[in-house]
Amino acid sequence: MSVFARRLLSFVLLGGLCCHFVLIFIYSSPIKFRSEKIKFVSNYYTYPFFHQSWNLFVPAPKAEFHLYVRYYGKDKWYSWQDVFQTQLNKRRNNPIKGAELKVLLFSTDMNYLSGSLSETSRVYEVEPMDVNFQILKHAVKQYIVNYKCMKKATTFEIIFVRIENKQKIIQYYKNLSLH
Amino acid sequence: MLYLFLIYRATVYALNFRSLFSAHRLIFHHTQHAGFKNDLAFVLTNHYTVYLGIFFIVLIGVLSLIGLFKRSNYLTNCLLWFTIVNTNNFLYPTLTAGDYLLNQLLFFNIFFSITNSNNNSVQDVKTIFHNVALVGIKVQICLAYFLAGWFKLTDADWLEGMAVYQTFQLPEYSNALLQNIPQSICMILAYATLVYQLLFSILIWVRPFKIYLFAFGIIQHLIIAFGMGLFSFGIIMIICYILFLKYDYSPTNFADGAEKEICED
């Protein structure tokens, strides 16, 4: 291969690399670009294969979550259990065994729900149709089925607690069906 | 190192198969079709079956083993990238920024090849791709740090030095040791992190600073991995440092660690 051909190929590839990073920069930087065209092109190129997000711990997390769950089976209500705390303890005891994944899963689901919470504590006699609640409910339901071996349980309840700046918001979801 | 991490990942997926990949998985899924390009990244999500889940985990393990034993090529590397991107998208609530960085590392890994060609022209082309991918990885890591620092500059808690202390007070990102670190120390840590992330992309190219940067970074990410509980994120970032160090002193295949002669233009 001639020197010219090698230089040309290097130049073309480095040019491509520059375009790649410019589009990723536009997609993931804190700058809000006004041009819809630029935003569209960068989104189209970057998502989903090169998607990345670098707002790590921004804003710094302030909310502490608890996820209490109890279920009805074999003619009795079982005692409340903080599912999230259980996973945190497992992760603390052995960080490399993969409990991290369940912590992240519940944490993400609770953050979704937290974003659509009303600022007051509330009891839900009828299950809300809010998609963020449905995502969390799905995780809890499968957790009961998988880890409590409660395939025959019929009903369960969730108490979701969010503590931020010493303010506690409690949401109590009753009469949730396991089927 | 990267392949070892992926083998670890495949093992963790297998150990947590019931909650992540089974019919009773904890993750809420809905199929999403958004054009051919996007669908390629959601094959596992859109066409999920338990057997496909098992196939993806086995594929990650096998392709990583192929890489570990230095038998990888462009095709296996490309397949590994595709598999990891799809698996990560399937496990979307469990992802951290480290997983997205892993996608990028594996993308550039496609262009690395450890096999030498007898044909000089082909070898030249391979070498050029190799070198450009090497630049790509380094720029990607620098971009990640720069953006992470920039985002922090837009947040009042980071500017006031309170972010680390607040984070350490939450059981989700802390342990008994971190929770008891005095506020003044946390403030120093917050500013040190801010300065580190902003200056990383510049100082990393200045040889005398490099070793101090890596020392600080490795300690920081060990704390994140074992103290804050974000194990995978911490380890992926440490792998990035190792790649940076490795390429400074010997031009080797990025994921395989195999020695490879790089022809300079």
Quick take:
The complex is a heterodimer of chains A (179) and B (265). By secondary structure, chain A is α+β, with helices and mostly antiparallel strands.
Task: Please explain how this structure is put together.
The complex is a heterodimer of chains A (179) and B (265). In chain A, a hairpin with a 2-residue loop joins β5 (155-164) and β6. In chain A, strands 1, 2, 3, 4, 5 and 6 form a six-stranded mixed sheet that branches. Chain A is built from five helices and six strands. The mean pLDDT of chain A is 90. By secondary structure, chain A is α+β, with helices and mostly antiparallel strands. Chain A has helices at residues 3-28, 36-46, 83-93, 99-115, 131-147; strands at 64-73, 76-77, 81-82, 122-124, 155-164, 167-177. With 265 residues, chain B is mainly α. In chain B, α1 (2-15) packs antiparallel against α5, α7 (97-109) packs parallel to α14 and α8 (120-153) packs antiparallel against α12. The longest helix of chain B has 34 residues, at 120-153. Mean pLDDT of chain B is 88; it is low at 250-265.
Q: Please, how many helices of chain B?
A: 14
- Please bin the fraction of helical residues of chain B: 55-70%
Name the chain pair whose interface involves the most residues. Answer: A-B, 61 and 70 residues
Strand content of chain B: under 5%
N-end to C-end Cα span of chain A? 67 Å
Helix count of chain A equals: 5
The number of E-state strands of chain B comes to 0
Global outline of chain B = globular
